Amino acid sequence: MEGNKKVIFSGIKPSGDLTLGNYLGAIKNWVKLQEEYECYFCVMDLHAITVKQEPKDLRRRSLELLAIYLASGIDPEKNTIFIQSHVPAHSEAGWMLTCSTYMGELSRMTQYKDKSKNSGESISAGLFNYPVLMAADILLYQTDLVPVGKDQLQHLEIARDIGERFNRIYSDTFVIPEAYVPKSGAKIMDMQDPTKKMSKSEENINGYILIMDPPEVIRKKVNRAVTDSLGEVKYNEEQLGVKNLMTILMTITGMSIKEIEEKYEGLGYAQFKNDVAEAIVSELEPIQVKIKGYTGNKAYLEEIYKKGSEKANYVANKTLRKMQKKIGFIPR
Ligand code: TYM
Q1: Residue 27 pLDDT > 60, yes or no?
Q2: Are residues 93 and 156 in the same domain?
Q3: Rounded distance from Cα 10 to ligand 1 centre (Å)
Q4: Which residues are recorded as binding ATP (predicted)?
Q5: Minimal-distance CA residue to ligand 1 atom 37
Q6: Are 169 and 218 contained in the same domain?
Q7: Per-residue pLDDT tens digits for 84-123
Q8: Annotated binding site: which residue ranges?
Q9: Atom of ligand 1 at shortest distance to CA of 9?
């Protein structure tokens, strides 16, 4: 295979339109890593159905997500780009790992607790089991590093626990992965309530920027972003709105906190907000054009995901066979 390169696995759920948080916390970071590592970037459609999806929207979003990966600069020649449901090993390994995972550890997951808060008895078992499938995704590829935003760290921890437990019960089978969180942009906050993570499921649309938001919408949302009455561009815990906008600017432009603070000293927020908006627009606009190009070329997307799933199936099945054998299943 690709020599001794370390392995990266990551993915995004096609369950809603992607936000600037997904882009800065995950995709932008992947693009930087693709030269150095052997990378698997996956469209997590099995995870998307843990909440109800309209079939035609799921189909459209899955292809659009693939187009977003490509448009952002993930090179299909260098990386394996594929769709999770095209590799049945994920579901099979997910089941085997479910059988050695505890209800107790799953019920402690904060994402599950948040999402299930108002659902009572009608919460799907898939949502509860979600982290086990995620562990399967990662462990099947003998992954060293998982580049994700901060909100996924707890899921990474349990993936490590699940992998270590299997190794202990059945002898060494999996590489135990590490999380890899970007230095800047690992948690982009909501622009209306900067104590919360920016999320596509938020009700107030001014709280988030979508990757596909047109420039004038981006400008309007940044302009409306919550700040404070201090009027100083400073990076601290008292000015969470400003801090978030600074983080966005830093992650896109590579400027440091000090450079930004100095540049806007004594200038108030108007120029600063304007520059943040322009930075986002100039980052996203060319990507949007490419996304539209790729989504219009279904045959090309099909070529990419078919080729990706061939390689992914091959690698994942090797690990799956080991798991089956160690568990005691009769070889097929
Ligand atoms: P998902 O689809 O919710 O989010 C995809 C990626 O975007 C990051 N992210 C953010 N980063 C910074 N600021 C934000 N506001 C923000 N919002 C989201 C997430 O941390 C994530 O990296 N469970 C995963 C999908 C998954 C997966 C995997 C990831 C399934 N199997 C295996 C890695 C490895 C999820 O729901 O991501």
Answers
A1: yes
A2: yes
A3: 8
A4: 13-15, 21-22, 149-151, 188, 197-201
A5: 12
A6: no
A7: 999 999 999 999 999 999 999 999 999 898 888 877 778 8
A8: 13-15, 21-22, 137, 149-151, 188, 197-201
A9: 34
Catalytic residue among 5, 6, 32, 115: 115
- Ligand 1 centroid distance, CA of 283 (Å): 20
Whether 198 is covered by a domain: the verdict is no
Domain membership of residue 83 as a residue range: 2-186+297-327
Domains in the chain, number: 2
3-state secondary structure the chain: CCCCCCEEEEEECCCCCCEHHHHHHHHHHHHHHCCCCEEEEEECHHHHCCCCCCHHHHHHHHHHHHHHHHHHCCCCCCCEEEEHHHCCHHHHHHHHHHCCCCHHHHHCCHHHHHHHCCCHHHCCHHHHHHHHHHHHHHHHCCCCEEECCHHHHHHHHHHHHHHHHHHHHHCCCCCCCEEECCCCCCCCECCCCCCCECCCCCCCHHHCCECCCCHHHHHHHHHHCCCCCCCCCCCCCCCHHHHHHHHHHHHHHCCCHHHHHHHCCCCCCHHHHHHHHHHHHHHHHHHHHHHHHHHCCHHHHHHHHHHHHHHHHHHHHHHHHHHHHHHCCCCC
Q: Can you tell me the mean pLDDT for 263-274?
A: 96
Is there a single domain that holds both residue 182 and residue 230? Answer: no
- State whether 258 and 136 are in the same domain: no
298 catalytic per annotation: no
61 lines ligand 1 (CB under 6 A): no
229 pLDDT above the threshold of 90? yes
Is the model's pLDDT at 244 over the cut of 80? yes
243 is known as an active-site residue: no
Q: Do 131 and 242 belong to one domain? A: no
